[in-house]
Amino acid sequence: MRITMIGTGYVGLVSGVCFSDFGHDVICVDKDPAKIEKLNRGAVPIFEPGLDQLMARNVEAGRLSFSTDLKAAVDGAEAVFIAVGTPTRRGDGHADLSYVMAAAEDVAGALTGYAVIVTKSTVPVGTNRRVKQVMAKVRPDAEFDVASNPEFLREGAAIDDFMKPDRVVIGVQTERAAEVLAEIYRPLFLRDFPIVTTDLESAEMIKYAANAFLATKITFINEIAALCERVGADVKEVSKGMGLDGRIGNKFLHAGPGYGGSCFPKDTQALARIGQEHAVPQSIVETVIRVNDAVKTRMIEKLRDLCDGSFNGKTIAILGVTFKPNTDDMRDAPSLTIVPALVGGGAKVRVVDPQGRREGEALLPGVVWQDDPYKAVQNADLVVILTEWNEFRALDLNKLAKKMASPHMADLRNIYSPRDAKRAGFVRYDCIGRSRLAG
What we know:
Structural class: alpha/beta
Number of domains: 3
CATH topology of the largest domain: Rossmann fold
Helix content: 40-55%
CATH superfamily of the largest domain: NAD(P)-binding Rossmann-like Domain
Number of strands: 14
Radius of gyration: 24 Å
Distance between the termini: 65 Å
């Protein structure tokens, strides 16, 4: 089938590349000429493991191309996916749908025959019906259907998630649209991956409800971790004991410095606003948002304690600033709350991250970027593990401790243990929801 993907951000680019690998002819469109020029050179503007090779293979096969010409790309397309950003709107927490509606208007003006307009962006309930109204107003004569097809891609594992999904959710109004989407996802259907076909509103709600539930699991275990610290329990053992219950599961039960990223923060805020608008407050979700912010603040106090009550004049090495490993995404990362607090408190901050520097240089002013963890901790007063990159999972703790002026560690991802730290020569060590070394 011929598919047009509007938007070459994270969702649009990954989806477009993967659809082309299914055997479809895909044109990815973006208004940014520099981004399209880069893609046409074979360069990938985001970091996602394996995406560069998959993209190159399908470009070479003639199934994948990139363009700024939306009108030409839409001409003859059987499905047009809208995969533009829906950031949180300033001031009220709503999802900003201006990019979605602008894309819908542009697509309507470019249609030359029947097509299914598929919203891939995460949008509030009712948005797809609005998209249909906007398009019909621009082109009353156009023949099209609107469908909802929310994405469930984990950054760092997006290709595997697309090719081996837990489920594919499709919201449609007509049988014709359902048939087009079924043909697009036929390679997954043939391998028995679940395809959930439902109405527009249910598809929209599934995305928000799923992300809010996962954010709730993370926030729940972070609150339990704080309690574990007070009562002497080990949150890693608690998480293991909980996760073995099949009704609960072990995923998203890892205590840390709070969730971040492109989805959970904006989707929980948007769901809370949807509830308020319809006089059905989402009290659990609202609490999750508040507690997650408090978790980040609690991390700052942990670090302050390890610096004897003040950051002023201290040298602190931060290992990892992206919101999770295997991505260069800095959106709503805990580092964006924690690192500025250190700098603002008078600390000299050195940062090491395998992929975070490209975005992080602008987002984290006042820090020194380094490539080597051992160089970063030279004469430092504190080392903080903030993102659990593999590069930080097998550090030589003895070497690390010996290079520091004050061998203090804040392991905010529970990679190591108090016993490991003590044997290596760390005088003080703190983590999340476990015992610590107090100097």
